[in-house]
Each structure stands twice: as structure tokens, then as C-alpha cells.
Amino acid sequence: xxxxxxxxxxxxxxxxxxxxxxxxxxxxxxxxxxxxxxxxxxxxxxxxxxxxxxxxxxxxxxxxxxxxxxxxxxxxxxxxxxxxxxxxxxxxxxxxxxxxxxxxxxxxxxxxxxxxxxxxxxxxxxxxxxxxxxxxxxxxxxxxxxxxxxxxxxxxxxxxxxxxxxxxxxxxxxxxxxxxxxxxxxxxxxxxxxxxxxxxxxxxxxxxxxxxxxxxxxxxxxxxxxxxxxxxxxxxxxxxxxxxxxxxxxxxxxxxxxxxxxxxxxxxxxxxxxxxxxxxxxxxxxxxxxxxxxxxxxxxxxxxxxxxxxxxxxxxxxxxxxxxxxxxxxxxxxxxxxxxxxxxxxxxxxxxxxxxxxxxxxxxxxxxxxxxxxxxxxxxxxxxxxxxxxxxxxxxxxxxxxxxxxxxxxxxxxxxxxxxxxxxxxxxxxxxxxxxxxxxxxxxxxxxxxxxxxxxxxxxxxxxxxxxxxxxxxxxxxxxxxxxxxxxxxxxxxxxxxxxxxxxxxxxxxxxxxxxxxxxxxxxxxxxxxx
Amino acid sequence: xxxxxxxxxxxxxxxxxxxxxxxxxxxxxxxxxxxxxxxxxxxxxxxxxxxxxxxxxxxxxxxxxxxxxxxxxxxxxxxxxxxxxxxxxxxxxxxxxxxxxxxxxxxxxxxxxxxxxxxxxxxxxxxxxxxxxxxxxxxxxxxxxxxxxxxxxxxxxxxxxxxxxxxxxxxxxxxxxxxxxxxxxxxxxxxxxxxxxxxxxxxxxxxxxxxxxxxxxxxxxxxxxxxxxxxxxxxxxxxxxxxxxxxxxxxxxxxxxxxxxxxxxxxxxxxxxxxxxxxxxxxxxxxxxxxxxxxxxxxxxxxxxxxxxxxxxxxxxxxxxxxxxxxxxxxxxxxxxxxxxxx
Lengths: 531, 343
Ligand SMILES: [Zn+2]
Ligand SMILES: [Zn+2]
Prior knowledge:
Chain A is α+β, with helices and mostly antiparallel strands. Chain A has 19 helices and 19 strands.
């Protein structure tokens, strides 16, 4: 635990992304199994001990410290784990040595709500302040030390010189402490055998289309539907639904768990039935309708009936045990079309190809899509394989106006009047380069509108839960949330560090599903300047 | 006979000694002021007469405008030095005694006696050993007027030797870089340097220009700081593997660009809280404070054992609560402008 505590502390005081990567990578190289696996799980938010919650520690402390002094301290420090670690009575330190993470895991897993209040103090007594901080963070999850799951995985990849996409590919099939992952990456063993597990495959993603015109004999066009990108996976009869970031959302959409008749991995847009997008023939409701179904752990029958979800299929990655990702888009498209008759129309339809004579005709069609509330067009290279990530020249997204970019929430400020108790003013930023290669976020704008009261409540909660720093009425938050920001125009500006100023930015949509490293880069924004 | 202690009147900007018509640490220019120590939230120029220890007067002469305006330009104001342990008589039958507070060079608590009542005002204080100033003395009294800068139980300052070892360890591990320590120019900077010397570090230490005069003043008062050099006179590469001491404001300033790959450290009691360190971009937090920590604050109240405790500034709510739990009479004075962020 001491080494892990030292790592956390070092990460807390490091602002440079590259330095953070180096610190985590060094730790992963130098620490034995299974401790390093558990540490990686903690950094990626993959550990959960049901009997231990932040409240458990709060209650332990309130038995030992006056409750008023506890609350004053907690308010000042701003972090429960840190306050508890600072206030834990030192005098009781036992002579036993600091426990290993494996030992901590063993103890924590065996805890019940009844035994936690007697067992946790024994662990805390064996640790110093840094150790206690690390233990509480580890036990309750949610590190909030400015390290995202993606950063931790990137550090793992750098540490053992493997590709982060490959790590992502195995990740969702493995459990902490990831023995197979370390055996493969660190010790040169065979790759983890994931063939029999319903695991997530990283998505192929698109670049925004800028000035260039594409030859439609090389590229096929599809509508860009406004839902959430999902991957439906069935292996050995077991089905899972994954979101864009690879989170398992099967429980939120249980209606998909028995509708694939064969083993397959398909890629598509999850939406709710309706007639907003693309009119009657479009068959999909607005994103807001879908929003009501997102983020729920349980779904009522009523909700299933009122907001029936379906997947509009874009692609097929695996079919009956056969990996099709090396095939060209054209071949995969044929396989997908052949698959369609075997799928229930209640749950699936096919994303139609938009036929156009040439590029300018396509542009006309795209302009017409404005009324149909469609986001824009996707352009896919006909001879391209399915490649994880965002490779230049293969897929393009061609969003319709108004200008939309994906930004990351960085700071929040309390509003005024009716909203004075909420953090309702948001400052967001974009990457100044490749986020996986050490880019930083720079603020590009500030928005106060574009969300519902229910969303505001959710945002306010997120701000409070992920606060990194407070500056008077402003809170700096951990970079976890993507906003799709709409604005009228963008201009160069010397007053801002990003060199950009947005005109009338507003939140177009909250992308709870989108990983922050996929937010837009400043280059994309600069290309939108029409000064 | 008037109400107990009514001759002491706290205002948000200072404490008035009513029968003597003078003020302690007033935040405005007054005719006669008693000043506990040289920090800007306690001392200022422009008073008609300033009564303080000789060291504090020397510090004030260096930092503040000492004259008062009389319409014909600046007139030198009157400076009345009082030695530690010396008792002076003020108007209205009030006696004042200056007692070491252990905060910075020249810092004093002031004991006031009037009509059989004893009041001690601590200014800022600490109980730890400090090679640059005289140690705090416990003075029994009826009313103890205390600071509470670090008045929360989370604030426990570790032994300074531990923080020095941390600093020297990082310095040794990064011989191609320098460590720049942000430290308050009066008191903290000199204490850090003196403690580095005590820890056996005898390399030259580089100074931000704003520190130089105060370091010289400390040396004139018998505090040995070893070899000091100015950053302004140094070549960038000369500073590799060395410690630089700078004002906290200089850390994130363009000034720091002249340093060779600096590792940013900060010597402050606030460094106990991770968020505070992150907020300032500090990579190496050093928990070093010239104020009493929670244990010192509460133990000092027990040691002094006053019948009333008045709290001037800081996190008074928690200290009030502690007094309440111990059934001690206490009140908060809500003094303004007394926050030393650089602490
Ligand atoms: Zn002071
Ligand atoms: Zn002060």
C-alpha cells in the first residue's frame, strides 16, 4: 500500500500529462502482481467493494471526532477521503506493518456492513496519512486525482510497449487484477484468450470533414443519426450491449439481450422509435426521448413500452465466430445486408445508404436534412477495413450547421437568481493536440443554457462530485464530461489562451456517453473560423 | 466600576485600548499604535507613534512608509522601541509588556494590565523551535486574544526536520534541476534557509531580489543564513542542483523562466491540504508554518488557562466549537484583512 500511496501522492502534485504517464508506467513496471493489477483497477475505476462507501468512513470518523469539527474540516478540505485520512487519530497506530494491496483487497472483499466498522479501523491504524488517503480512495472508488481510465490504460500500454487499442480490446473481457493482461504485456506471454467472452471491440471513428471534396466512387454516404453509438455483442449465446466508451449498458436496455439469433458483433446507433429524425420514414425520436432512458440501472415495463429502443445498424465486425474487421467496408456492408432478414424488425433496422450523383448533389441533400433534425452525414471509404480509433482518410463526419463541436467541461460556476444554488455556468475546453500524446485542454468558451432543469440537477451533482479545486464561486472539475456545444460562429481572439472566441455558445447536448479524449481539438475549431 | 474588560474594545480593523487611546495592530493610520510584528496584516505605516520591539521597528522601517502627512510633506513618525520583557506605562493607567511570540523576528505578544485585569493579545504565534526568533512564552491572563489561522483539526504541522529531509531528498535526486521554494519574504524565507543550514546544507542558496534586504536585516540581528546569492546575478546553469528561495507570487510568474527546470516547492501550512497545493501548481509541498497548528492552538489555551478566549482571525468557528466542548467562554472578533495566504 505504501508504494501505491506514494504513486497517488505523486500524481496529485503532477500537472503534466506526460509526467503522470511516466509515474504510472514506472509503478506498473516495478510493482509485483497482483498489487499492480489492483492499482490499475483502482486508477481505471474498476474496483467496487459493496460493503464500503464514503459514508462508512464518515461514520467511523464521526465516532472519533466531534461531528461539528468533522463538518468544518470536510468543508475546508473539500474531499472526504482526505479529511478522514487527516483526522484519523494517529496515536492509535499499530505496530503491524503496512498491508499489501492484495491483503487490503482480501479484507475489503470479505467485509459486510456489519463487520466494516470494526475491521476498517484495524487497516487504518496500520497506515500513515498518505496510506490512509490511498486506502480510502481505493476502498470507495472514484480517485478524483486527475487521472482518467484512458490515461491509466495509456500508461499501461507505454509501460510495456503495447498498443493502447489492443489493451482496450482485452480490457472489457478481463477482471481485476488482470493477471492475463500483465502476463501478456509484461511477461511476453500469450495474449489473453477472449474468444469465448462477449467483449467490447473499440469503435472505428470519424474525422470531421473540412474543406475537401470526396469522390463518391471511393466513399459511401450514410445519415449521421442522433442517438448513441452502441455495439451489440453475442458470444456463445451470451449478449452484451456496450456504449461508445465501452461501458456495459446491458442492464439499461434489457430488451436487446435475447434478440440476436446468432453469435455476432454489430455496430449501430441506438435510438427510440419516433418520427422526429428524418420524418415518418426516418422512424426515430429525438435525442431527448432517448435521454430519458439513459443512465438507468433498472427499467420499468412502462418505460419499455413508451420509449421502445432499437438499433439502426451501421456495420458488422464479427459474424458466427468469424472476424470480419479485415474485410473492406463494401464486403462488410454486403454481409450486414444479408444478415438483416434474420434480425427482428422490432429491434433492428438498417442504416440506409444516401444515394447521390456526385459530391455537390450530396451537399444539397445534406442541406435539406436540416428540417429533418438529422445531425449530418457520414462518409465511409468503401475499401477500408474496420480499424479501431480515428484513422485519417477512412471515415468522415459531415455535420450540418449550426456549428457543433465536442468540448470537455473544465470549470463550473454558480448561477444567479433562480439558479444561484446550482453550478450552472460552464467553461469548457478542447485539446491543443492529440490527447493521447500529451495534449492539454484549453478553455474555448462558456455556456449557461441549452439544458433542462433535470439535466441541470444532474450537472450540478457531477460538478460537486468531481471537484478538483475551488476558486471562490468557481470549481475546477475533473475532466470527465463532454458537451456538444453549438455556436453561431468562431473568431480568433488574442484575449484567450486558446486564441479562439465563440459567438453565442450554448450546450446542444450533454454527451454522458462520450470519452473526453474524443472531444474536438483546437485545430478543428480553427478550421471553422470565417473571419 | 465598569463591566469587565470594557476597556478593551475590538473593532474589525484593530483592538482599541480605550483609556490609553491607542490601538493594537490597527489596519488604519492612528495616532498611537502598538504593533505585534512586521507582517502587512498587522503592521502599516502612517501612525503618529508606533510602539513595537526594536526588531519589528527595523522591519517596518524597511517595508512601510513611516511618515505621516501634515500637509507640508512627510514628517518622520515617532518610533518607540520596547524590549522583550519590558513594561511600559500608557495613558489611563494601562501597562503594556512585550513578550516573545515565536512567530518571526521581533514578534511579540502584548500583555495589557488595567484595573487588576490582564489581557494578552498574541498577534500571530507558534510554539515550535525557530532558529530565527525568540521562543513563545506562556503568560497567564484573564482574556486571551488569540489568532486561529490554522484553527482546524486537519492542520497538524509535521516536524520541520521531516520537511527539510523531503526538500533535500528531491534536490539530491534531481541534480540537473533546481528546486524553487516559495516562501513568505518576512520570516518564512529566513527560517527555511536557517533550517536548511541546521540540516547540514551548506551550498549557496539563491534568492529572489525581493528577499535580499530582509535576509540582510536578519543577518544584522545575528541570524546566520550562510552563503546567499541573487538569482539576478547568476547564470542559469549555475543554479542547477541548488535551492532558490522566492516569494510565492514569483513561482507562477514569468520571473521563474530564468531558472533551470525548476521543481516548484512551497513552504506553507496550507500545504497540508492537497487541493491548496494543486491550486498553486505546487509539485513539492512543504508543510512549514510560522503559525500555531491545531494542537498548539488548543494546548496553548490550556496552558494559559484564561477565563475568556477571544479569537481574532482564521478559522475561528472550529476553535469556538473546541472551547464550547471544553466549556470555555469564547467569542470570535471577526477581524478583517488578517489572512496570510502565503502562510
Ligand atoms: Zn504574521
Ligand atoms: Zn496574521
